[in-house]
Structures are given as structure tokens and as C-alpha cells.
Amino acid sequence: MKKHLYYFLILFLLFFSCKDVGKSDFQEIVVDMDSDISLSLSAIADEITAIELELTDESLINPDQIYGILLFENQLFLTQPTKILVFGMDGKYIRSIGSIGQGPGEFRSIGKCAIDEKNKRLIVTDMSSTNIICYDLNGNFLFQSSAIRESGKIMFDLNCINDNIFVLVDEFRLFDAKGTLSQPQIYRLNHDFQITDSMAIRKANYESLMFYMLMASRELIVSTQAGPCIFCPDYFGQKLMLSETAMQDTLYRIEKNNLVPELKLKFRNDGISGGEKIIELANVYRSARYVFSFYRNQAKSSFFNYCYDTKTGTGYNMKDGYTDDIHHIEKRLNIHPLITDTEFFYYWYTHLDPDSLEEPNPTLYIGKLKK
């Protein structure tokens, strides 16, 4: 009798231990890759504000080179490769921050910008030198750091959330004669820009790797109601030979010194066809209600926007983007999150006057998502 009871207890423990291991603590969202429907922005937004940005000799904007926008204390900080333009919420041009060069406070090419709200500072990465540069909000240079200046490391994103500075870094090494090893990590920095912690995301071996394929305009580290979240993107057009240690297509939540899976986009056959990965995600982020993504389907040679409504359980797959039925813009649009608060999004559109000889700056639209 004791022997039978002993075996029963073993089976009981094995059953529940296996159940715990297989339990998913994060949400999987199935993406219908074959659908194509444009979602009207009025369906997801409570309001959308249009801001016509003033055009001057100093504030000329190329909409194809807008890397991101920050909103703080009723000022808009617009990032371009060679300068940061500051506008008021009324669209009036205020100032330009930074300059091209190799001296203190200068950069060769801007990568990402973030606002340190507690200390009221602007943090900028230099893609060419891997320097991190700090200005006050009036554009005065404070100091810079080269803490991540190591061979083979490239900074892809930066954000300051809840008094923490996070930097997404990828380290590249020759794996063997056949490929390159990619080892992305998330670094946590103190306010002197010194590394205080690091967390590995995954290891992946690519057949070859070029550095142009990660789009600088994609937001990867964002602030959500669940806390800071990070998505490590695929490299467009690169053949993945081997991947280890982490799930692809997954958004992670940063909790203390750990990366916790928040949600995963599930594509048919995991986005693989004929042994090749055809789905390449540029970003994944979420608000309190919605999940958003931008990706490329190589099989269709097209880019897609994706939106999932967690309240209704409905997903929208859009080949050419969203429809602005509030401001009646005919062109379909791509939207971006405000990295300091993903309850807000923005997009651009240039309204051309056929009778004008001068092309205006693009109009900035900022929307507030429904709860």
C-alpha cells in the first residue's frame, strides 16, 4: 500500500511540475498575414491634434529623415540625422540643438534622443562614434560619455524611463567563415552615463550582416503602463542561420535585472516559408488597450502595419497603413508611439499647395488612444 501511495505522489508531483513549465505567462497574438484592411484612426483614437510646424531657414524638415519626436513641457523635440529642432505646441520654431563635428558636444550622425525628465536634460547618441551626449533643454552642452565605446558594439536605441537610462546595444563578432554572431543586450546607465547593469537578449548567427537594415525611425524601448518594455528587431534582408536563448517576435518587459516576456506575435509557421524566415519585424509595442507592430513580408515584398485590440480581440493587418478619417487625409499613414507614453502616437503629412512655389514643412499629428 505504501509503495502504491509513493508512486501516486511521484506521478502527482510530475504532473503539476510539467504543467507549470508549460504554462504561458504571456499573451500570444495570432496575426492573419493574408488579410489587408485599413483601420480608421477614429476607431482607435479619442482625439488627434494637427500642428503645422513653422518653416524658416533654420527649421527646414525633410520628412524622410525624421528619426523621432519627444514631447516635454509643451515643447516638441524633433530628431534628424544632423540636428534636433525644437518647436512649441503651436508649431512655432524655437531653436536648434547640436552641431556636426568631432569636438565636445558635437556629433557626426544622430542616432536616438531621450528626455531625462527628472534632471531636465536631453540625451543624444552619436551613431558614428557611440558617444552619448548630454545637453540641457536650452541646447547647452553639459558632458558626454564613451562608456559603450567598444569594438564591434553599436547602439540602436536609447530611452530614459522612471529615472533609468536604458540603451539597446548589439555586439557583432565573426562566428566563423560562414557568418556573424549578433549578441544584443540592454544596458542600464546611471545619470553620469556609466554602465550599472546589462541583460543579454539573445544570440543569433547570420550568414552575413550589413548595418543599414535596422531602421533608425523605429522605437524599440518604450514606456508603457506595465513599465519599460523592449523589442529587439530582426535585421531586414539578412539570412538567419542560428538563434539561441530567446523567443523571436516577442516584446519584453524590463523588471529590475530581468527581461520578462510580455507578449508574442504569432505568425503562420512562425513566419518561415521554405526554410527561410519571411516575416521581419521592425517593432512591437503596446498601449493599455492596443498592440502595434510594423513588419515586412518578404514573400509579398511589402511592409505591413498591425494593430490588435485587446478589448475586442480583433486584429487588423494593413498593407499600406491607417486611414485618417478625422482630418480626411487621402494617403494611408504609418503611426509611431511617443516613446515616453505609448498612450499617444504621432504621424506626419505634408499638405502641398499646387499654387505655392515653396514646399511647406510637414504637419505633425498627435493622437490620444482610446482606453
Describe the model.
The model is unreliable at 1-24 and 211-216 (pLDDT under 50). This protein has one helix at residues 2-22, and strands at 27-30, 45-52, 68-72, 75-79, 84-88, 93-97, 110-116, 121-126, 132-136, 141-145, 153-161, 164-176, 179-182, 185-189, 195-200, 203-206, 221-224, 227-231, 240-244, 250-255, 258-266, 272-273, 276-277, 279-286, 290-297, 302-309, 314-318, 322-324, 329-333, 336-338, 341-349, 363-369. Helices cover 6% and strands 50% of the residues. With 371 residues, the chain is mainly beta. The chain starts with a helix and ends with a strand. Strands 11, 12, 13, 14, 15, 16 and 19 form a seven-stranded antiparallel β-sheet that branches. It has one domain (26-65, 150-369).
Number of strands: 32
Counting helices, strands and paired strands, the structural category is: mainly beta
Quickly count the helices.
1
* Poorly predicted regions: 1-24, 211-216
Q: What portion of the residues fall into strands of 2 or more residues? A: over 45%
What's the alpha carbon Rg, rounded to whole Å? Answer: 22 Å
Mean pLDDT: 84
From the N-terminal CA to the C-terminal CA, the straight-line distance is 59 Å
Major sheet summary line: 7 strands, antiparallel
Shape: globular
What is the subunit arrangement here? single chain
Domains (count): 1
- Helical amount among residues, as a percent range? under 10%
